[in-house]
């Protein structure tokens, strides 16, 4: 399977530095439908990763029990609680006011609310939607695959960020059997009508045609919560108007650089997901120098 890689110059040119007249809405709004009683930390990590990655306005929709954790950890994030959210009022992406959604980080695949909330976001968000964690399992149902197909037809991007286990669970019900990671990314992207970022020691991103290989990762990233951070970072880049392929490749590369920069200070042993977020500025500076 033929793959390409983005040059450092190409990646550096994609970084959405804000223009002089930017305001928080023109910079892009990211709505994160994330976190549940069992996994409140995913909501904190994803929303913080999104803010540091440049989203102008980061919103979290979550369970009441999670909301206070997010408010306490990230006071700049705007938090709503599920029963108070009117799906018809979910903000759309508009000319000059870009917007994107992340759904599923910190969702439990076995929880009946996961499918309901994933469907609610996909049906109502007139904007790119990134599906992560529990929402990837939900996406295997025929009903949700129909919605994904309709969204793609209507011009709304679907983005999927599975690790190897989640990719296998997405592949199985569709009879996709390949063990070749870039080919798996390509087949999943086609079957689910979107762009797939297949995460691992090497990460592959495919929009159904082009397969991009990203091998800047470090084993320091192999720790709980780093995927939640990556979903927030990539969602923030989608919210700032990058195409799905570009947002995934830039997000994965900056996440990998941030892991490397954190490991320089802390060693491969000690890096936590929080440290990856704290190292995003160094990752940006490194990319600016390399590009
Ligand atoms: N602090 C938090 O709140 C955290 C919440 N998290 C959330 O926890 C939920 C469950 O996520 P998990 O990834 O643990 O659940 P999964 O149910 O996807 O992982 C469990 C199984 O999948 C397989 N698997 C996991 N990672 C794999 C990999 N990289 N390659 C191949 N196979 C793999 C393994 O067989 C594993 O036993 C998600 O909603 C996630 O967002 C995690 O991100 C950890 C941190
Ligand atoms: N050995 C490794 N080398 C490089 N990157 C890794 C390695 N292991 C995991 N990663 C990266 O760490 C992140 C883990 O994501 P994920 O498994 O979804 O974590 P979580 O669900 O706990 O947040 C992914 O970006 C993945 O590419």
UniProtKB/TrEMBL annotation:
Belongs to the NnrD/CARKD family. AMP binds at residues 199-203, 227. Its cofactor is Mg(2+). (6S)-NADPHX binds at residues 42, 106, 163, 228. It holds the Pfam family Carb_kinase. It comes from Xiamenia xianingshaonis. Signal peptide: none annotated. CDD domains: YXKO-related (cd01171). The gene is nnrD. It comes from the Bacteria. Residues 7-287 form the YjeF C-terminal domain. This is ADP-dependent (S)-NAD(P)H-hydrate dehydratase.
């Amino acid at each position: 399977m033929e793959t390409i890689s983005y040059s450092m110059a190409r990646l550096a040119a994609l970084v959405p530095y804000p223009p002089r007249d930017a305001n928080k809405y023109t910079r892009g709004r990211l709505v994160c439908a994330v976190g549940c009683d069992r996994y409140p930390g995913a909501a904190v990590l994803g929303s913080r990763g999104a803010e540091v990655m440049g989203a102008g306005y980061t919103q979290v929709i979550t369970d009441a029990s999670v909301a206070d954790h997010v408010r306490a950890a990230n006071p700049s994030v705007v938090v709503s609680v599920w029963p108070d959210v009117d799906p018809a009022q979910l903000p759309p992406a508009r000319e000059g006011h870009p917007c994107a959604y992340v759904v599923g980080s910190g969702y439990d695949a076995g929880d009946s609310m996961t499918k309901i909330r994933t469907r609610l976001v996909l049906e109502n968000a007139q904007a790119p939607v990134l599906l992560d964690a529990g929402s990837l399992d939900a996406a295997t149902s025929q009903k949700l695959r129909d919605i994904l197909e309709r969204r793609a037809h209507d011009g709304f991007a679907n983005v999927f960020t599975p690790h190897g286990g989640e990719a296998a669970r997405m592949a199985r019900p569709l009879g996709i059997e390949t063990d070749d990671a870039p080919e798996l990314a390509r087949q999943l992207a086609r079957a689910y009508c979107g762009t797939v970022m297949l995460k691992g020691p090497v990460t592959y991103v495919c929009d159904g045609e082009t397969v991009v290989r990203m091998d800047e990762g470090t084993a320091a990233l192999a720790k709980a919560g780093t995927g939640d951070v990556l979903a927030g970072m990539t969602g923030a880049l989608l919210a700032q108007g990058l195409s799905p392929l570009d947002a995934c490749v830039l997000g994965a590369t900056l996440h990998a650089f941030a892991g490397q920069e954190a490991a320089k200070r802390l060693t491969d042993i000690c890096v936590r997901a929080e440290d990856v977020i704290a190292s995003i500025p160094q990752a940006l500076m490194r990319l600016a120098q390399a590009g």
